[in-house]
Amino acid sequence: MFAVGHFALAYLLGKASGKILxxxxxxxxxxxxxxxxxxxxxxxxxxxxxxxxxxxSLIMTIIAFLPLFxxxxxxxxxxFTAFVSxxxxxxxxxxxxxxxxxxxxxxxxxxxxxxxxxxxxxxSEFILFIITLTVLIKTRDLAQFLxxxxxNLVLAIPLFTVLLPTFTSYPLSVPALLxxxxxxxxxxxxxxxxxxxxxxxxxxxxxxx
Length: 209
Hints:
By secondary structure, the protein is mainly α. It has helices spanning 3-20, 27-33, 58-72, 77-93, 119-138, 156-168, 179-208.
């Protein structure tokens, strides 16, 4: 999936699990977790065929989140759901072939019927974006991105590793229908990070003077 699809699945599923467990998750953090598995792309120039390997493994995800579950109990569920949705739904269904049981097995699993650039996937991601935007507005979760919370600085991760590179690369890799959703997140994350950064600079300036 493109970033738009991963953001949508993470938000909708994480939000649903939070509602069931009566937990109010931090939305920006959930969206960041939804693209963290693709950090393995950075290793591709040095390690062959590493993409969709360990960082997409269900076993490794459970091990990584186990301390968080022990410490925070049900409060960790929305974040686990957001993270695991990347591989188990996004990548498994679209394009497939992930090492879901690494390190016990390096065999890849997943469906290969739908390509990331297929009309079905593009339309699905656009619809998921519309649903996500509607829920964000209706539940007022959108306001979390406009708060002066230092935790929102984590949005710089998808901003500089996924969204900005998408529009600075040539040729443009995002389908035309998904350009508006990508631009929406690009603007939203930029504003969110700017709010926090501006306030930090003001506080620093005040302390110096």
